[in-house]
Amino acid sequence: MTNKGFAVAIDGPVGVGKSTTARRVAETLGMTYIDTGAMYRAVALFCTEKKIDLHNATAVESVLSDIDIHLRIANGVQRVYLRDGDKRRDISDDIRTQSISEGASVVAAYKAVREKLVSQQKQLAATGRVVMDGRDIGSHVLPWAQAKIYLDASTETRAKRRVLDLEAKGLPADFEKVREETIIRDERDKNRTNSPLIRTPDAHYIDTGNMSCEEVVETIVNIAKLKEGR
Questions:
Q1: Considering its fold, how many domains does the chain have in total?
Q2: Which residue of 59, 78, 119, 204 lies most exposed, with the fewest beta carbons within 10 A?
Q3: Is 1 within a domain?
Q4: Residue 1 predicted with pLDDT over 60
Q5: pLDDT in tens, 10-68
Q6: CA angle centred on 61, ends 58 and 67, rounded to 5°
Q7: Tally of CB atoms within 10 A around 119
């Protein structure tokens, strides 16, 4: 596949603010935001609804051909649809629960799942101007991306942010539990066999611990403009 597009690849561990940052970077630069994590969440939701054991790789892989994920941008916001019979159902809100987040981390480790979704992600980015975030965007999905970013922050900082996010949604949140879940997710993402979370040598490292979201966005926007010659 010939890549004629311009891409900003944003990678980093769970809870570092990739999605929010990527969305705002895309808005600022007039680019299309592609939330790859939402696609893995969609797989986890499908399997959960079908009573399929997420920890059974064979069972998950056996239903991949039945999973039809569609991304659509409406009023500048990405919506995620899952085919349900002859219709597509908007699952954008359904995939944002903590349990589906955990499930996404599990299914994302399966080779067949990654191959299916990565192929779709590459097609989406091949000819457009996109901002894409995930765990392996710069290393595997879009190794040709002109601007690569690796966001990071301490485990404690990311856990605190997650707690605040859950509380803002009116959901119960225990810091120690969230912190432990963050550590588990980090271990799983960094040590999985298929496309682990890594920082590529050409990625710009940004520690967001003492930065506001606006400062992080501005830093990435400036890097992207420089790479695109703007």
A1: 1
A2: 119
A3: no
A4: no
A5: 999 999 999 899 999 999 999 989 888 899 999 999 999 999 999 999 999 999 999 99
A6: 150
A7: 11
